[in-house]
């Protein structure tokens, strides 16, 4: 039971950390909107920009009512909190925490600005990946960690 409590604490700490990093980076971007609106090259293949996305990933569901996307994100976070509490390892707890923190970071943006602030622009030549933010990075890394943890756990169970 003590290990389970440590995992939950670990996951909650990851969620808070992801949320804070996301909000801090978005605050920096909002303090420099004018120069970032045109894009600022950082190095070849990477720019800082200022964009607002009223949809979800890749602009999907753009134009949907803000409250519906917020409600959906909060419902998913509720489900992820249950998964976090049931996590069997610190890796799983970390993963769920990262996803929760990232999702809540984007929810905070929707509630404050009506849309999500995106600012990371990765490209190759003239092909640009849709702009994203640190919340998105945490969600994607958390999802990858869940998959990694699941596959590692499955291999360990087969070996037993």
From TrEMBL:
It is found in: Cell membrane. It catalyses: Release of signal peptides from bacterial membrane prolipoproteins. Hydrolyzes -Xaa-Yaa-Zaa-|-(S,diacylglyceryl)Cys-, in which Xaa is hydrophobic (preferably Leu), and Yaa (Ala or Ser) and Zaa (Gly or Ala) have small, neutral side chains. GO terms for biological process: proteolysis. The active site is at 118, 136. Its main location: membrane. This protein specifically catalyzes the removal of signal peptides from prolipoproteins. This is Lipoprotein signal peptidase. The gene is lspA.
């Amino acid at each position: 039971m003590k290990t389970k409590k440590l995992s939950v604490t670990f996951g909650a700490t990851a969620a808070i950390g992801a949320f804070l990093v996301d909000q801090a980076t978005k605050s920096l971007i909002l303090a420099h909107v004018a120069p970032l609106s045109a894009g600022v090259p950082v190095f070849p293949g990477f720019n800082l920009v200022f964009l607002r996305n009223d949809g979800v990933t890749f602009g999907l569901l753009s134009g949907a009512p803000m409250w519906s996307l917020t409600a959906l994100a909060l419902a998913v976070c509720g489900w992820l909190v249950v998964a976090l509490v049931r996590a069997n390892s610190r890796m799983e707890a970390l993963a769920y925490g990262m996803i929760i923190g990232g999702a809540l970071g984007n929810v905070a943006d929707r509630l404050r600005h009506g849309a999500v602030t995106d600012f990371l622009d990765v490209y190759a030549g003239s092909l640009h990946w849709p702009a994203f933010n640190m919340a998105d990075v945490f969600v994607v890394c958390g999802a990858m960690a869940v998959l990694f943890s699941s596959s590692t756990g499955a291999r360990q169970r087969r070996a037993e």
